[in-house]
Amino acid sequence: MIDKSQSSCATAVADITDGATVMIGGFGTAGMPDELIQALIDHGARELTIINNNAGNGDTGLAALIANKRVRKVVCSFPRQSDSWHFDAAYQASEIELELVPQGNLAARIHAAGSGLGAIFTPTGYGTQLAQGKETREINGRHYVLEYPIHADFALIKAHRGDRWGNLVYRKAARNFGPLMAMAARCTIAQVGELVPLGGLDPEAVVTPGIFVQRVVAIGGCGPDGAARTTAAAAQGEDQ
Amino acid sequence: MIDKSQSSCATAVADITDGATVMIGGFGTAGMPDELIQALIDHGARELTIINNNAGNGDTGLAALIANKRVRKVVCSFPRQSDSWHFDAAYQASEIELELVPQGNLAARIHAAGSGLGAIFTPTGYGTQLAQGKETREINGRHYVLEYPIHADFALIKAHRGDRWGNLVYRKAARNFGPLMAMAARCTIAQVGELVPLGGLDPEAVVTPGIFVQRVVAIGGCGPDGAARTTAAAAQGEDQ
Amino acid sequence: MNRLSREQMAARVARDIPEGAYVNLGIGLPTQVANHLPADKEIFLQSENGLLGMGPAPAPGQEDPDLINAGKQPVTLLTGGAYFHHADSFAMMRGGHLDICVLGAFQVSQHGDLANWSTGAPDAIPAVGGAMDLAIGAKQVFVLMELLTRQGQSKLVPECTYPLTGLRCVSRVYTDVGVFAAGADGATVIELVEGVSLEQVRQLTGLPLTMA
Amino acid sequence: MNRLSREQMAARVARDIPEGAYVNLGIGLPTQVANHLPADKEIFLQSENGLLGMGPAPAPGQEDPDLINAGKQPVTLLTGGAYFHHADSFAMMRGGHLDICVLGAFQVSQHGDLANWSTGAPDAIPAVGGAMDLAIGAKQVFVLMELLTRQGQSKLVPECTYPLTGLRCVSRVYTDVGVFAAGADGATVIELVEGVSLEQVRQLTGLPLTMA
């Protein structure tokens, strides 16, 4: 029997090493896997390269990871926000490196990595500072910039529901980068609001098929008791 | 009020001109929009370039379009099947041109068109006849072939359910190329088994958002009476 | 000189958005265009973070942290809307599926170059978001901005001096004194606010503007 | 010489597929590998036309024309399976997410080049399907074929003479007389069917085979 569910967030992130490249889902705080990030902070890995749309909001999640000085570099599209003070301070102090990527290029490059492409000619950024030094080409009268895939060692994402095979569905706009990052990381760890029994997700509505997910942890399990939360049905026989 | 539903398949395909490039959904017969194709045959457009995974099965659908000598060229991955006799005959008689594309490149090139990429470096086909004469590049130790997007004037696809805004869901493996082709054509025409009222599709489970679909026709409407079939609920006020 | 309020500017853009259009509204003033779209027409608002059929702000107490717009403000989804991931969302933009996007700007050149993501200040933290994707992706890019900076300089310029967002991408510029078209042959005036003369906007912009 | 039946060949490959593997089985003999996977292990079968968690053929009368495999035969979906579109399906292959694919072949070179889509006959209608994507995408490519053609020629060859499907992509070759590894240093023998000698397979293939 294949069971990708983990007993705790701590277990799920235990093998993330110093220097790892880690994708973190979320657009602002929607879809941000706070509990997994907290486990990563507790775990202690340093010198991380983080890929996220932003660079942290407020004092929790990615912002806390940055505040704890675990991040060497951020690859993102929109770091500067009203509540990105931890990134701002680290950046102004030259303690953190920033690679700024237009949001659509970020999404497309992550998708390209997950899809096995070697590079893509993208229309975004042509003629701007963000394409400086990059190869360009005119194709059918339009100008494109050559961009390379963005892979990661780990992806930490948040989904709404998952099963023990790693199938995931998301909730509203918290979906954002999750499905892409799941495809692009060597090891994808999903925190889910609820671990449902196999068959509990409509096969027509699964957004991330289990092949893209290596570990699933129910966020109840990241609380003080350390035990994964599952639905009652999941605890019973699901294959009946 | 925006209502993309069409009164009949004939109306839906009426402006497909001679020489048009037409994507047709389906993998074999699963997802093949038979009624739209029949309407296209009745409509009479000639010299079509058809993009489909195959080149027709049996005597209906794409096979009938070919048998009626409406197709100048087929772009596909797998024309040769036990029941592809109409294509086989046309090909052997040099009446039809074939561009053979590996299936993953076909999918990726259609997706690239829908996504606005100028070209992609794909791993498939490197070192084979199907990459002859194409630009190649080694990236991070792997070899890739440069492939260009495949656009179309029209896409004819089959979905399970749709609404008047063009949102679509598919059924099982009949999904296949439908969502991709919908993105890549200037005008996407979807035949649906059922036209449901707005809100009848779960927003979390919509596979093709309406922005990619210009016309929807309920297949009941392609029968002898020529009237579109809708659910009773759709005929009543849906916005209550 | 007579000038439109920001509210009036947003309403003016809204007038040019036809029923059935797929529209992305940028952060800030462009977001307010939504408040002026006619209630009896169906216009589809797209949000870069994975919404199509975005609705208005929720009633107080009904906010959902998972249902936000590109500016991270709480929104709603209309009946008939859909959720999708970021690759699909940006495919909508970059693949040319959006009819219109409305963006703010620091500068727009007479030829339609757009600068709206960075003032180039050396110590500023750069941030671009989806601006570059929208700029090159939508079929029509409308800029909504006051014509002048607080210092009185025209933001409709011969050539942008701020870092570019996209080249030759803006089709129209909606301002507090009038509406302009940008293009290969330079900028022209589509309409002027009542009481504003062609000569006045020529002087303000320093551009040889003519009526379109 | 002792030889495995096609049934036994399929069973032999099945033995090397571990629990939890994501596997694509090609059309023809490879499809039969599914019949020999252990019922008490969870192995995930992927079908290029948009299925993960593909199950066995349905009971007679239960066929669904919308639920077919790559060979267009009726199949089922296991509880916990999922449907997806072709771009996602081929992303699974090309993005390196499949652990194993099992393919038939006309020829495999000692270095792992694969030829399985065309015999190069001048009047044949070419067809490639997903073969090239699987060949270069799966982490391990297993070929399942009789060692010899009906004319008695080895299909494990120094260099392929038929048009290639992929370069240096095959890791193992399962045949009716034994299992071979292919690689940069040439082919080696992993195991031989009882009663088959190394010398015999050397003669059959004309390759300087050694035991792995």
User: Averaged pLDDT of chain A, please?
Assistant: 92
Measured by residues with Cβ under 8 Å of the partner chain's Cβ, the largest interface is:
A-C, 50 and 40 residues
Q: What is the residue-averaged pLDDT of chain C? A: 96
N to C succession of SSEs of chain C: HEEEEHEEEHEEEEEHE
Give the class-level CATH name of chain C. Alpha Beta
Low-confidence stretches of chain A: 221-229, 231-240
- Which structural class matches the secondary elements of chain C? alpha/beta
Sheet with the most strands, sense and barrel status of chain A: 8 strands, mixed
What order do the SSEs of chain A take from the amino end to the carboxyl end, as H and E?
A: HEHEHEHEHEEEEEHEEH
Strand content of chain C: 25-35%
Could you list some keywords that capture this structure?
heterotetramer; A: 240 residues; alpha/beta; Glutaconate Coenzyme A-transferase; 7 helices; globular; C: 212 residues; three-stranded mixed β-sheet; 4 helices
Task: Walk me through the structure.
The complex is a heterotetramer, with two copies of chain A (about 240 residues) and two copies of chain C (about 210 residues). Chain A contains seven helices and eleven strands. With about 240 residues, chain A is an alpha/beta fold. In chain A, the strands form two sheets. In chain A, strands 1, 2, 3, 4, 8, 9, 10 and 11 form an eight-stranded mixed sheet that branches. A three-stranded antiparallel sheet of chain A has the order 5-7-6, with helices on one face. In chain A, strand 8 and strand 9 form a beta hairpin. Chain C has a single domain, classed as Glutaconate Coenzyme A-transferase (3-Layer(aba) Sandwich), CATH 3.40.1080. Helices cover about 15% and strands about 25% of the residues of chain C. Chain C has four helices and 13 strands. In chain C, a hairpin with a 4-residue loop joins strand 6 and strand 7. At the A-C interface, helix 4, helix 5 and helix 6 of A face helix 2 and helix 3 of C.
